[in-house]
């Protein structure tokens, strides 16, 4: 039995399947063995960078003093968060939803809090970068309004949806706890 009777669980399945694909095929491209990454996946990332001039991926934020926090965040995200936590969590979430495991809500909550926490500094950085009237090229520490909108359209869903899902999964877990407490009280009442 799957968890899919709830509309939100169907949304979860779509979102987390997409997030798993993005994590494996886009975010962790640097970890693929040389020559195994399909060309179209490289092209997706290159096209995104060309369209957005995403300073978080291109190193446009300047020297080490300006990017130390970002480098630390990226190292943390890639080593502990994305590859060691988020990737396995995404796989467990997708499998758990398909299997109907209610315990999957714990993984959804943990993943969503982690995901939102790593996306907040990215959104803040995009908003803090100076505006320019013209579209910039990779390596420029300024973004046009169109580039900022493009970046926010790409980053905000990975902030907003996890926040919504964290609240929803927390509520689901709360319901499960209430049912467990009620069942335990009923069992204690029968044994007395």
Describe the structure.
The chain is mainly α and 192 residues long. The protein is 76% helix and 2% strand. Strands 1-2 form a two-stranded parallel sheet. The chain has helices at residues 7-27, 39-52, 55-58, 64-99, 104-128, 145-155, 157-191, and strands spanning 131-132, 143-144.
Categorize the overall geometry.
Answer: elongated
Q: What is the chains' assembly state?
A: single chain
Mean pLDDT: 82
The largest sheet has its strands arranged as: 1-2
Jot down its keywords:
192 residues, mainly alpha, two-stranded parallel sheet, 2 strands, 76% helix, elongated
In short:
By secondary structure, this protein is mainly alpha-helical. The protein has helices at residues 7-27, 39-52, 55-58, 64-99, 104-128, 145-155, 157-191; strands at 131-132, 143-144. The longest helix has 36 residues, at 64-99.
Task: List the topology elements.
Layout: H1 7-27, H2 39-52, H3 55-58, H4 64-99, H5 104-128, E1 131-132, E2 143-144, H6 145-155, H7 157-191
Parallel strand pairs: 1-2
Helix pairs in contact: 1-4, 4-5, 5-6, 5-7
């Amino acid at each position: 039995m799957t968890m899919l009777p709830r509309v939100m669980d169907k949304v979860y399945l779509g979102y987390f399947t997409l997030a798993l694909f993005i994590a494996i095929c886009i975010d962790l491209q640097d970890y693929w063995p040389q020559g195994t990454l399909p060309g179209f996946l490289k092209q997706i990332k290159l096209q995104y960078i060309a369209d957005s001039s995403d300073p978080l991926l291109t190193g446009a934020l300047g020297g080490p003093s300006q990017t130390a926090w970002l480098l630390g965040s990226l190292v943390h995200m890639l080593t502990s968060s994305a590859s060691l936590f988020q990737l396995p969590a995404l796989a467990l979430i997708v499998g758990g939803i398909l299997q109907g495991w209610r315990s999957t809500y714990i993984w959804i909550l943990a993943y969503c809090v982690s995901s939102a926490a790593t996306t907040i500094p990215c959104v803040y950085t995009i908003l803090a970068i100076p505006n320019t009237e013209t579209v910039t090229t990779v390596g420029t520490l300024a973004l046009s309004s169109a580039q900022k909108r493009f970046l926010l359209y790409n980053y905000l869903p990975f902030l907003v949806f996890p926040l919504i899902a964290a609240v929803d999964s927390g509520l689901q877990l709360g319901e499960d706890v209430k049912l467990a407490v009620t069942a335990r009280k009923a069992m204690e009442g029968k044994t007395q």
